[in-house]
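[job 4417] fold queue: 2 targets
>>> target A
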Amino acid sequence: MLLLAVFSLATACGGGETTAAPAEEATAQAVVLWGAEGGFVTATTNTLRPPRVVVYSDGQVIADAVKTFRLTEAEVGETVASMEKFLNGQPPTAAPKPDAPMVTDVPDTVLGVRAKDGRMHEVRVPALDQIADFYPKELTEAKKLMDGLATRAASEGTDYTAARVRVVAENAPGVEGEAKPWPAGVQEPSGSVDPVWKTDLDGAASAAVVKAVPQGGATGPKGGGPGQSLFKTGSGAVFVVSWRYLLPDE
């Protein structure tokens, strides 16, 4: 990881002396991403859904906010260069060939790379998985590269955890099952929950949610996705509560 050193010039009797201030660790930036947006999914899924793959400048790769592994500095450079080549000249939203079949209710694929000006260049590709042959081959190559990183995360990655979590509560008045008491020390939903209530937590509140709601959905590679359980607030309202770990830049 890059280290930034700030130097100050101090003068002393008989001449000048240069001293270095304590080095500060720079925050890693997302430099490549692959995600999904939209589609016929629940409000909870849409709110909680993490990127499929994010590559950070320090080499960390996080897949589905579930698995993580590290690339070498050379691998990061190669990945960024490849994505720059694949996405160069692509519009913000790609359009398939005119004779492509119509596909609805599926998520758009989002492919991104941090450009040399520091901004994330993102391209949205509707129904890429379903009609890949009707798009420029560069977009399918970019998706293939990201698929490879997801496969590596599933096979050689370790469990991803973080100190912060995102919690989503969805009204569940007719859902069957025993509702547990709302986790102690965690803020309860307030106001209108339409369609979901969302909050990001850290510290003791984050730990309480992780302990109370088992993780084990199937959104990520080999499962381990968002936890989900029924909970009842102090006022008697029942919610389906889901959570996932937040990414470093969220």
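>>> target B
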Amino acid sequence: MKPIFTKSDYQILVDVESRKACIVKGSNSVYVALEELTPLSALAAKHLRMMGCDPKRYLNIGHSNHVIIKEAATAWQSALNQAKQKIEQSNSSMIHSLWQNLPGLMELRDAEDTYAACQKSASLMLEYQQRGLPPTRLMELRQKYPRAAAYILAEAYAFSGSETIAELGRRAMHLLISGASVEETLAILPNVPPDGATTEQYQQSALRW
């Protein structure tokens, strides 16, 4: 953590990466989240008065009852802005990686959704089969875009009711976006169908056809 404000025995240290801060007063310290500052709550003001402090000199941190002195507000806001910028940069980088490493994702997802809709209607399924669309077209797209197909499968696991399985799904999604091997990533997924999928659908999914 790096100090952003110091006055006498009062100091504020911040870790922008983890969005955490440490407020030090003499030999005592408290760790808090790096959040927006808000007007002092009535409860916090009451506690400050009981300790002989002037409530007018303080602000709340977020919606908690943690407080900082107003003199540190500018330094605090600067650190908060840095944290927000890092998040935005990270999100932009992730979006770039998503499109760069998952070509065909939108086209394949559209075909998957169409196939799912067709399965609920015998007449629609017949119509699409005659036009060479799902499942024929879907299988072609899965073979053409194996990474995108694996991502959609991992996504299905990520929505599992089991947190253990959901975590494996999220991990697989991240690996695929990051450019990891499709085969190795699929190997970490459970050998059971995702929630809501039939065994037949599962066997046809991603690289399991």
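[job 4417] complete. Note on B: The radius of gyration is 26 Å.
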